[in-house]
Design goal:
This protein folds into two domains: about 5-150; about 165-495, Neurolysin, domain 3 (Orthogonal Bundle), CATH 1.10.1370. It has 20 helices and three strands. It has helices at about 5-35, 40-60, 60-70, 75-95, 100-120, 125-145, 150-155, 165-190, 205-220, 255-270, 285-300, 305-320, 325-335, 350-370, 375-390, 415-435, 435-440, 445-455, 465-475, 480-495; strands spanning about 225-230, 235-240, 240-245. A hairpin with a 2-residue loop joins strand 2 (about 235-240) and strand 3. It is globular.
């Protein structure tokens, strides 16, 4: 078999795997957005079956043989990257029994429904057995992949395979050391920010109309996407169909707006992947740290900027009765720091990272066996009090607020902070490269930023590993320095904090 024939056969097999995976993602989207309340028993079986098919395709001997043949072939760099990525995924998969993959999928589907009920009823004990089962299953999963390594490190590589966990821990430590003094400075500040600029009651349908208007302005292509409501905002899809969800709180329209812009960032990355590489690693996103960098860049560096609010405020006034709010007041309102906020997805961009550190430490200890499930609510509350000076009164606003553990996504949370630091690096580089970027945002001309991100990040898919991709785009390795500089400058100005 020629190298070209072998490579074409590889792409065909990988494309089938991708299609099965995307079908499962679509069923999961439906479960979170539209599925009838009692649909879980069938849905869990459907998702379990698809996960087994995907696993069997990935572990097939024929695929392994093709990878072996191509490993020794003289391939162009892009094709060698495809072989590298498929091999990485397959080497993990072949070590895990299909029945374990099926059980994890079914348990996650069942846990999602249990989590929703537990959160609604503020009843952690309802969710606890499902969490215990998922922890056991994921420990077994990690042990199959590498019994001699830290299981949390193995699971972290599911979401960020190219950066070592040690690097993520260094970033989190740097962020904590930088954020805590800034938050202390905010607490001590006498600055009177316009935190009530968007106070009031705003019907969900009027908020939705605003979200659609803003998405239009940002350039969201409705022919390849849609906007829906979900208990926990998320985005999913492919370069042909990248969907956004958000959630509405009638007392907090800015929460919906920033969540929508955040998910737009995810979707625009997915949509920016090359159509002609669909179904191969060159048409897939470079894992979650980079994915999160796109959402955090649009949410924070665009959506919380003065330039954006000069553009957006008239749209807010068109849809919501917010009175005579100035651009500066809007800017202060969406950037105000609230250390007493309990909910991660509603957190300001500064204290957000303390929420991540808390979750990272808890899930790491759960996986490593140093923390029992029954202890989670108390440990969560203690850490919240220690890091943010506030203690949840209910588990619904404490340890039950996030959806990730119901999916079995242990090792996911560090990618949020990694994404934030990469976002700061990317926006700095874009600002250097794109003449008048702020002015473009102010005028609602978002194409220059879209085009820069597509050229530097999106179009490459998984051709480059995380650090190389960031270095090519910005000139620097992944590091927290740009975020620390950005946050220090921004919040010392907002709160008149002495440096």
């Amino acid at each position: 078999m020629s190298d070209t024939t072998a490579y074409d056969d590889l792409l065909d097999r990988v494309g089938r795997i991708a299609n099965v995976s995307h079908a499962g993602e679509l069923l999961s989207w439906d479960q979170q957005v539209m599925m009838p309340e009692k649909g879980t028993p069938a849905r869990s079986r459907q998702l379990s079956a698809l996960s087994a098919v995907e696993h069997d395709l990935l572990t097939a001997d024929e695929l392994g043989g093709l990878l072996d043949d191509l490993e020794a072939a003289d391939l162009p760099d892009e094709r060698r990257a495809v072989v590298r990525e498929v091999r990485r995924e397959r080497e993990r998969a072949v070590r895990v029994p299909t029945e374990l993959v099926e059980r994890i999928s079914a348990a996650s589907s069942e846990a999602l429904t249990a989590w929703r009920e537990a959160r609604t009823d503020d009843d952690f004990e309802t969710f606890a057995p499902h969490l215990e089962e998922l922890l056991d299953l994921k420990r077994r999963y990690a042990e199959h992949i590498d019994p001699d390594r830290d299981p949390y490190e193995v699971l972290f590589e599911e979401y960020e395979p190219c950066l070592p966990l040690e690097h993520a821990e260094e970033v989190l430590t740097t962020l904590r050391e930088a954020v805590v003094p800034l938050v202390d400075g905010v607490r001590a500040s006498e600055a009177d920010l316009a935190t009530d600029a968007f106070a009031g009651t705003f019907e969900a349908d009027r908020q939705e109309a605003l979200m659609r208007d803003v998405l239009d302005d940002l350039g969201y292509p409705w022919e390849r996407g849609r906007l829906d409501a979900a208990p926990h905002p998320f985005s999913t899809g492919t370069t042909y169909d990248a969907r956004i969800t958000t959630r509405y709180d009638e007392s907090d329209p800015m929460g919906a707006l920033l969540s929508t812009i955040h998910e737009f960032g995810h979707a625009t990355y997915t949509l920016g992947l090359p159509d002609d590489a669909y179904g191969s690693p060159l048409g897939e996103a470079r894992d979650l740290s980079i994915h999160e960098s796109q959402s955090r860049l649009w949410e924070n560096h665009v959506g919380r900027s003065t330039a954006f609010w000069e553009r957006c405020l008239p749209r807010v006034r068109d849809h919501l009765d917010v009175g005579d709010v100035s651009v500066r007041e809007a800017y202060e309102a969406v950037n105000a720091v609230d250390p007493t906020n309990l909910v991660r997805v509603e957190a300001d961009e500064l204290t957000y990272h303390l929420h991540i550190v808390l979750r990272f430490e808890i899930e790491r200890d759960l996986i490593r066996g140093g923390l029992d499930v029954a202890e989670v609510p108390a440990v969560w509350n203690e850490k919240m009090a220690s890091y943010l000076g506030v203690r949840p009164e209910t588990d619904a606003e404490g340890c039950l607020q996030d959806i990730h553990w119901s999916h079995g996504n242990f090792g996911y949370f560090p990618t949020y902070s990694l994404g934030s630091v990469i976002a700061a690096q990317l926006f700095d580089a874009a600002d250097r490269d794109v003449d008048g970027l702020d002015d473009s945002i102010r005028r609602g001309e978002f194409d220059p930023l879209h085009e820069w991100l597509t050229d530097r990040i999106h179009r490459h898919g998984k051709r480059f590993e995380t650090n190389e991709l960031v270095r090519r785009a910005t000139g620097s390795d992944v590091a927290a320095d740009a975020f620390v500089d950005y946050a220090t400058e921004k919040y010392t100005e907002l709160y008149d904090i002495d440096r």
